[in-house]
């Protein structure tokens, strides 16, 4: 190998600083969440304890954290399932041009880049005018889909762009019905990408704030609850909650990425040619 | 995510000679129908509703159907609007410059200096993982750094740069831009990295063989070829910052104004028609900015 140019070391240092910038603050609050009972929001550490984590488990000390966590979890799973299903269907539909596909594609992009507050305000207004109550599982659910679906669809578009259609043709030539072709040929080939779509669906929903603000109704999701806490909670209990929910997110990310990795490995070991359907 | 492409897939091979009972168009529409329903009800209808309600009238506690230009008249003649927009634009420009420079540098390092694909993927994931965690928590996590007794101030005082704590670190415009850069640089890194990975490395070798210096290669080869990625990242960053209300509110301690905050304040006061008019102007502004950016590069042609 040729020796590394000097620019490599400069850029590597910049990259290291960037990673420190990305993760440093989160690591800091993770450390500070172990503050002693007398400790404050900044260093120095006033002893080390699990006091603030224990506080999270006392209903009176803070708001309805566990209720909101349960709702965020349920909502995240709902959004995840629907994002995967609708993205796959949408991806299949977009493999050929159809009447209106150009407009629909523009709508998908619009959904991605429209300022979130417009969705929040618009959906809130519709429910208000129609005399319906906003609720996290109806209006909140739909609003979040406008954020997760574009990501799912763009991943599916990329996947189907590289999809080798001859595998389907082979199945069809052997007499498979369209449904059998999808079920036994297409889905196994795109399966690892679906794990990625699911990851986007769940995590983006779990952390979503702006689009849920006016559409969640009287029962808060976790991000809304946490934001409410920032105005009236001035103890490290906020950090303890932040640390726990970040650990939860990291665990989810780990499970999904690990799952995708294992799926690839297993496929390679079984010498299956399913992955070769992507060219 | 590295293969993410902002383009509709090319039409597949035609099924020559296939006998089909269901016409293709019907199948395509059936498959797309859930998507159409969701986007129709939660994207198109909300925008239409906002446009309609922006002409409605309001009392202190309710709003009623009407066709009035009052909301727009008030908005467009108020000196507050202009200063709020200028402030938001300042955030947008500053954030855009910083995220672009940092994002480009990081993507360049990953794409051209990391030699094995495994390391590229690992380091790329390292950069994207925070995207899947909570923005609110990531904002909160600046408190111990920037606060009056925070790490930044302790360090500054220890090395003798300042004698008393710097007050403008947290709850200031500085903190707002810092948080934006912290939250949104990812949106630059991903599309720029994606475009860079598709640059044919032989082009760079050819430039080097022809005697170009590193700077010349960067300026005349890499940057022009990376333009689509830069534009996609820029569109993300600009729209995210223009519409933001939560970062500005939290990081400025409620002291700075932005268009998004103006809208959310009106919503809190139940002034929905005024908020709707504000939202329409915001949407138009964002659309104008995006189309201006698209003039510099034809994304459809370049992809």
Describe the structure concisely for a colleague.
The complex is a heterodimer of chains A (279) and B (303). Chain A has 279 residues and is mainly α. Chain A contains ten helices and no strands.
Please identify, by name, the CATH architecture of chain A.
Orthogonal Bundle
End-to-end Cα distance of chain A, whole Å, is: 30 Å
The residue ranges of chain A in which pLDDT falls below 50 over 5 or more consecutive positions are none
CATH class of chain A: Mainly Alpha
Structural class of chain B comes to mainly alpha
- CATH class descriptor name of chain B: Mainly Alpha
Write the H/E string of chain B, N to C: HEEHHHHHHHHHHHHH
Fraction of residues in H or I helices of chain B: 55-70%
**What oligomeric state best describes the polypeptide chains here?**
heterodimer
Q: What's the arrangement of secondary structure elements?
A:
The complex is a heterodimer of chains A (279) and B (303).
Chain A: H1 6-32, H2 51-56, H3 65-93, H4 101-113, H5 116-129, H6 136-161, H7 166-173, H8 178-207, H9 222-232, H10 237-269
Helix pairs in contact in A: 1-10, 3-6, 3-8, 3-9, 4-6, 5-6, 6-8, 7-8, 8-10
Chain B: H1 24-53, E1 57-58, E2 63-64, H2 70-77, H3 79-113, H4 117-128, H5 135-140, H6 143-146, H7 151-158, H8 173-197, H9 201-209, H10 214-242, H11 246-251, H12 259-268, H13 272-296, H14 299-302
Antiparallel strand pairs in B: 1-2
């Amino acid at each position: 190998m040729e020796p590394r140019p000097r620019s490599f070391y400069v850029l590597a240092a910049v990259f290291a600083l960037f990673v420190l910038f990305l993760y440093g603050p989160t690591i800091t609050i993770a450390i500070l969440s172990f503050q002693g009972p007398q400790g404050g929001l900044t260093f120095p550490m006033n002893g080390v304890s699990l006091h603030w984590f224990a506080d999270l488990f006392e209903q009176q000390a803070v708001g309805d954290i566990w209720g909101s966590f349960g709702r965020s979890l349920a909502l995240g799973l709902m959004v995840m399932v629907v994002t995967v299903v609708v993205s796959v269907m949408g991806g299949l539909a977009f493999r050929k041009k159809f009447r209106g596909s150009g407009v629909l594609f523009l709508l998908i992009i619009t959904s991605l880049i429209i300022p979130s507050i417009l969705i929040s305000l618009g959906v809130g207004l519709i429910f208000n005018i129609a005399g319906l109550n906003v609720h996290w599982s109806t209006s909140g659910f739909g609003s979040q889909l406008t954020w997760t679906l574009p990501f799912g669809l763009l991943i599916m578009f990329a996947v189907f762009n590289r999809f080798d259609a001859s595998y389907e043709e082979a199945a069809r030539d052997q007499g498979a019905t369209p449904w059998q072709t999808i079920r036994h040929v297409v889905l196994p080939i795109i399966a690892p990408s679906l794990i990625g779509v699911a990851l986007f669906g769940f995590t983006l929903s779990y952390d979503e704030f702006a689009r849920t603000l006016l559409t969640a109704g009287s029962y808060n999701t976790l991000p809304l609850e946490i934001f409410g806490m920032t105005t009236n909670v001035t103890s490290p209990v906020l950090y303890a909650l932040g640390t726990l929910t970040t650990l939860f997110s990291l665990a989810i990310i780990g499970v999904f990425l690990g799952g995708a990795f294992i799926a690839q490995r297993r496929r390679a070991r079984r010498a299956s040619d399913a992955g070769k359907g992507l060219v | 995510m590295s293969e993410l492409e902002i383009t509709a897939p090319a039409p597949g091979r035609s099924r020559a000679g296939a006998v089909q009972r269901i016409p293709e168009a019907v199948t395509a529409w059936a498959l797309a129908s859930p998507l159409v329903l969701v986007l129709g009800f939660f994207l198109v209808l909300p925008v239409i509703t906002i446009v309609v309600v922006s002409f409605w009238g309001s009392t202190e506690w309710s709003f009623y159907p009407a066709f009035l230009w009052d909301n727009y008249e008030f908005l467009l003649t108020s000196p507050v609007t202009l200063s709020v927009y200028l402030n938001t634009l300042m955030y947008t420009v500053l954030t855009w410059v910083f995220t672009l420079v940092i994002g480009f540098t990081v993507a360049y390092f990953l794409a051209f200096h990391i030699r094995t694909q495994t390391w590229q993927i690992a380091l790329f994931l390292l950069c994207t993982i925070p995207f899947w965690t909570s923005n609110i928590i990531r904002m909160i996590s600046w408190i111990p750094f920037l606060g009056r007794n925070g790490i930044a101030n302790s360090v500054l005082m220890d090395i003798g740069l300042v004698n008393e704590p710097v007050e403008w670190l947290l709850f200031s415009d500085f903190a707002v831009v810092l948080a934006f850069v912290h939250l949104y640089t990812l949106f630059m890194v991903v599309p720029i990295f994606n475009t860079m990975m598709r640059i044919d490395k032989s082009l760079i070798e050819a430039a080097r063989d022809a005697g170009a210096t590193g700077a010349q290669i960067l300026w005349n080869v890499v940057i022009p070829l990376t333009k689509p990625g830069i534009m996609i990242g820029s569109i993300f960053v600009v729209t995210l910052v223009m519409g933001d209300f939560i970062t500005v509110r939290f990081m400025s301690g409620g002291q700075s104004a932005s268009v998004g905050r103006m809208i959310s304040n009106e919503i809190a006061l139940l002034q929905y028609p005024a908020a709707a008019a504000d939202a329409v102007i915001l949407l138009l502004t964002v659309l104008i900015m995006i189309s201006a950016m698209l003039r510099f590069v034809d994304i459809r042609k370049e992809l």
